[in-house]
Amino acid sequence: MRIDVESFDDPRLADYRALRDRELIGDDGRSGTFIGEGLLVIERMLAVPGATRSILAAERRLAEIDALLAHHAQPDVPVFVTPDHRVEALTGFQMHRGAIACGDRSVLQSRSLTEIAPTSGEALVLAADGVGDRDNIGAIFRDGAAFGAHGVLLGQHCHDPLYRKSIRSSMGYTLSVPFLHCVLPSTLRMLRRDHGYSVLGTVCRPGARALPSIRRTERMVVVVGNEFRGISPEVEAECDVLAFIPMRAGIDSLNVSVAGAVTLFHLAHGSGTLPGGNPTGQA
Description:
- Helices cover 30% and strands 19% of the residues.
- It is an alpha/beta fold.
- Helix 1 packs parallel to helix 2 and helix 6 runs parallel beside helix 10.
């Protein structure tokens, strides 16, 4: 639904005003809304019913946005239209992609644990323990999407997956891979005790098993840790096995999102659950 913007004082633009300088904090201490940049991310937002509050776009992007709204049967989503330079003046940052959207966090933050970690059948879950970098959090969700993770458990002190730049780093997969904020040690303990999950912790130290020797169980959680400290002792105590990725001498570690991708690939490929895929496509 096109709405031409005549003034920055329009109260309907409040969600977009000075995005660099403020957050709209909800009851849980995080923003009540989130911002997505670019047509790819907006398309993933529209794929989640009720997640998109509105869209702010330059005129040059309007035809593409109309096509997305029609494809996802959401013609009533407000689309505020304005020249590029006005968008940048309003939001406080350069908008190279020509479109941004405002979403409702509550739609994405209301999932149950069983949506993330199914209690029957095969399941592969990714867990992040204190991953603090916005780009790493985004990349971890992209890993999960690429290798078939059912969802992501986010322990305390993880970066916000709905932060604008985290969404961008994930290629929008923080919107489609379900996640749950939790107290990770007690959640892992419950999944092991009550639902037959095994927990694999990724580490880079002597005494752990080499990843190629690990075989996937029916229901498994893969834990990646903080960029500097690794997995916390409390979370490590809930791991059934610790694994390292064999590397050349003198290389002691990988970026956390790369380690997560290598581990998920091994488990998905080894279990026969990874499809052939398209080598020319994008994850």
